[in-house]
Amino acid sequence: MEKQGWMENVPDAAEVMKDWKPPRSIQAPTDASIRRMSRRQCWKGLQLMDREGKALGVVTSKPFACGELICDFHSRLISREQGLQIHQNTEAGHLFFFISKNGQGMCLDAHEERCHCHPNKSTFGRQIKHSAKRTNLSPRLHFVEDDPVILFMATRDIQTGKEIRYDYGDHRRSYAGDGLDLMPA
């Protein structure tokens, strides 16, 4: 700045450092916290928003850092074969195919508006919209006491008021109910 001859609006490094705060650290979720949040379905920092001409979407009400746990995909667990039968007759966006620990094809079926264990809530994971190009979430397969849980992690920093999206994977040639290549969380 001195070399360029700046005379005004020159920041003082000491003042900048005095007000600087390091970015918040991301703590890896524990099995107990994942189980608790999944059971309660009280994911903080999310809200459902009605978009004009579109179905409900999930929007952030607080910022999330890259790698942070956002929510889960919560629904009824069925076999891959049952999921394929449903897939032939309905929209694929409410099915989530994956491979269990023992190599068995499984599916989470969220076609019902309300799940049997949370009849008074519409779960956030069910309402997350598809985007192949503007995705900001990545699903991760996690096991809590051998029970499969699909977790959504932020793939980049997400600011307040942004809609969250992930790639359903159903437009891939290899889909056929095989689902995404999920990595354990």
UniProtKB/TrEMBL annotation:
Taxonomic superkingdom: Eukaryota
Domain SET as annotated: residue spans: 44-169
Gene: LOC107565398
Any Pfam family matching the protein: SET
Taxonomic source organism: Sinocyclocheilus grahami (Dianchi golden-line fish)
Any one GO cellular component localisation term in the record: nucleus
Protein name: N-lysine methyltransferase SETD8-A-like
GO MF: histone H4K20 methyltransferase activity
Record GO biological process: regulation of DNA damage response, signal transduction by p53 class mediator; regulation of transcription by RNA polymerase II
